[in-house]
Write a structure and sequence with these properties.
There is one protein chain. The protein contains six helices and four strands. The chain is an alpha+beta fold. It has a four-stranded antiparallel beta sheet with strand order 1-2-3-4.
Length: 185
């Protein structure tokens, strides 16, 4: 009798443990599959953005994320600077070649001729900042980057499958700086 009772208890314990293990495994697999289903669209979108951003340039996903984060942070800082028209702080974000190019009276004169307001004249880099740089970028939302090379990036707003470029960046000595493109002939 004792032996028989022990066998019944043993079988019952085995059955309970088996059911528990199957239940836990089933719940876990459901959770994993739900997580995969939930994360899938966001992950695909991030993968698509990474693919769009690194088209012809070999950049790791980690490097892409770090660069994008740093560039978007700089753009946020520039937004604050533009809101107060803080020219001297803005200069710290501009690469040296752009400062030189846009300080040239000849280049400023050519740019003045292209302004919508024909009476507006650009005489200094400060004028360029105030009358061209700020109005063309203020209030714009940049959300993605596009690598031209490992050290040259465009910051863009995506509108209806089209990239609108608001910033050009160049990495100099490990630091991202704004490059202001030269005039096109």
């Amino acid at each position: 009798m004792y032996y028989r009772t022990m066998k019944i208890i043993e079988k019952s314990v085995i059955a309970i443990v088996t059911c528990c293990l199957l239940g836990v495994a089933s719940c876990a697999s459901n959770q994993v599959s739900n997580i995969e289903q939930d994360a899938s669209p966001a992950e695909h979108e991030k993968d698509d953005e990474y693919a769009r951003s690194t088209l012809d340039v070999q950049v790791s996903l980690e490097e892409f994320r770090a660069d994008k984060s740093e560039i978007l942070k700089i753009i946020d800082e520039l937004s604050d600077i533009m809101a107060t028209y803080d020219y001297n702080s803005w200069l710290n974000y501009i690469e040296p070649d752009s400062k030189n190019y846009w300080s040239s009276p000849e280049n400023l004169y050519k740019a003045s001729k292209r302004l919508p307001n024909r009476n507006q004249k650009l005489s200094t880099l400060s004028d360029y900042f105030r009358f061209v740089f700020v109005p063309s970028r203020k209030g714009r939302k940049v959300g993605e980057i596009r690598y031209i090379s490992r050290d040259v990036v465009k910051a863009v707003q995506v509108r209806e499958e089209q990239d609108v470029v608001y910033y050009h960046f160049v990495k100099i000595d490990g630091k991202w700086l704004v490059r202001i493109p030269a005039l096109q002939s």
